[in-house]
Write a structure and sequence with these properties.
The protein is mainly alpha-helical and 361 residues long. Helix content is 56%, strand content 6%. It contains 17 helices and five strands. The chain has helices spanning 17-33, 45-49, 56-73, 90-98, 104-108, 111-119, 128-131, 133-143, 156-173, 188-191, 216-224, 245-253, 258-262, 269-278, 283-309, 312-340, 349-360, and strands at residues 4-9, 38-43, 81-84, 148-150, 181-183. The strands form two sheets. A three-stranded parallel beta sheet has the order 1-2-3. Strands 4-5 form a two-stranded parallel ribbon. Helix 9 links the parallel strand 4 (148-150) and strand 5 (181-183). Helix 4 (90-98) crosses helix 8 and helix 12 (245-253) packs across helix 15 (283-309). Bound molecules: adenosine-5'-triphosphate (ATP) and magnesium ion (MG). Adenosine-5'-triphosphate binds next to helix 1. Residues 9-10, 12, 18-19, 22-23, 151-152, 154-155, 192-193, 201-205 line the site of adenosine-5'-triphosphate.
């Protein structure tokens, strides 16, 4: 079977380090293995509009920001198709048909939608488009016959919903759609990276992010303002790792080579954690280390972004070409879907012949 990867991001802001460890870093690694027959990376503007209908300018402005972040992280248009969701009309058509296969109560049970409705204070005024976005996500995934979807943990219920739609469709209309598999980050810290406030997940909508394009001074300021262990007051006090954002970030970003480079008195992260828990290691020292780690991780990304920023028309042109390619693939799937659903009247000679016979008898 062909191996196809699909994933994407909402253009509601620049991408942050949560996106990076949750999905982006993995995509680039997978892209560079050469194991995939096709890779589709989608800027989900139509989905962003489901909760930003009154702010289209925000979505419009952030398309290029997300595209630049992609290129800066190493997504390569020669290896991956980067495209814009709204430019693929077949996705709307697929969503419309999938809507018949999902109940209102099933959507209401979706934990991610529930949490997001609460976060956005929608209460009784939930836009229908927002409520049904898990269905449109199923259209995105199935349109490209994706087998692998690398995403953060918050997307698990979406993938489950997609798989249910695939199973239902195939059982009602015959084997047509491909069953996708979710690919979660290997490391617990990367599944749902907390914001610098340590509270919820890092999210563009919550203003608790370190952005991939952030300048060094800003990164430093954010690291030093980070939440640690509130009971770790004096250096000698034993410190806790649970809920300690600085250590969560080290779990997500630290590589073995950073110890000899920035903190040679420790062998590895386990040794650093032991010392912190035992007492005698101050937060400032750990934060200084994390700052060095993040600066080392983000500097090449920021520099590459600046290179791509020099030719913005070329970035739009790349997205246009990607969208054209994506549309052709989605059109093929839609054709299969319509045939399976028996709404391909004009392509079906047997139907026309049969009906002629019926009326001539
Ligand atoms: P919004 O607030 O507009 O929903 P977001 O920051 O949640 O934005 P999305 O575009 O919804 O970002 O998510 C894109 C991808 O990044 C998804 O695969 C999601 O699982 C992953 N992701 C987002 N935030 C995190 C995070 N804090 N930790 C790990 N993965 C994340
Ligand atoms: Mg989100």
């Amino acid at each position: 079977m062909r191996k196809v990867m699909l994933t994407g991001d909402r253009p509601t802001g620049k991408l942050h380090v949560g996106h990076y460890v949750g999905s982006l870093r993995r995509r680039v690694e997978l892209q560079n293995t050469g194991d995939f027959d096709d890779i589709f990376i989608m800027i989900a503007d139509a989905q962003a509009l489901t909760d930003n209908a009154d702010n289209p300018e925000k979505v419009r402005q952030n398309i290029i920001e997300v595209a630049l972040d992609y290129l800066a992280c190493g997504l390569d248009p020669k290896k991956s198709t980067l495209f814009i969701q709204s430019q693929i009309p077949q996705l709307c058509e697929l969503s419309f048909y999938y809507m018949n296969l999902v109940t209102v109560s099933r959507l209401q049970r979706n934990p991610t939608v529930k949490a997001e409705i609460q976060m956005r204070n929608f209460e009784a005024s939930i836009p229908v488009g927002f409520f049904t976005y898990p269905i449109s996500q199923a259209a995105d995934i199935t349109a490209f016959k994706a087998t692998t979807v690398p995403v953060g943990e918050d997307q698990m219920p979406m993938l489950e919903q997609t798989r249910e739609i695939v199973h239902k469709f195939n059982s009602v209309y015959g084997e047509t759609l491909v069953d996708p598999k979710i690919l979660l980050p290997e490391n617990q810290a990367c599944m749902r990276l907390p914001g610098i406030d340590g509270k919820a997940k890092m999210s563009k909508s919550l203003n608790n992010c370190i952005y991939l394009s952030e300048e060094p001074e800003e990164i430093k300021k954010k690291v030093f303002s980070m939440f640690t262990d509130p009971t770790h007051i004096r250096i000698e006090d034993p410190g806790k790792l649970e809920g300690n954002t600085v250590f969560t970030y080290l779990d997500a970003f630290c590589r073995p080579e950073y110890f000899p480079e920035f903190l040679p008195e420790y062998k590895d992260l386990d040794e650093l954690k032991e010392h912190y828990q035992r007492g005698g290691l101050g937060d400032m020292k750990v934060k200084r280390f994390l700052n060095n780690v993040l600066q080392a991780e983000l500097e090449p990304i920021r520099n590459r972004r600046k290179e791509f920023q020099k030719d913005i028309p070329a970035v739009y042109e790349m997205l246009r070409e990607g969208s054209e390619k994506a549309e052709a693939v989605a059109a093929e799937t839609l054709k299969d879907v319509k045939a399976a659903m028996k709404i391909n009247y004009f392509d079906d000679e047997e139907l026309i012949k049969g009906q002629s016979k019926k009326f001539s008898d």
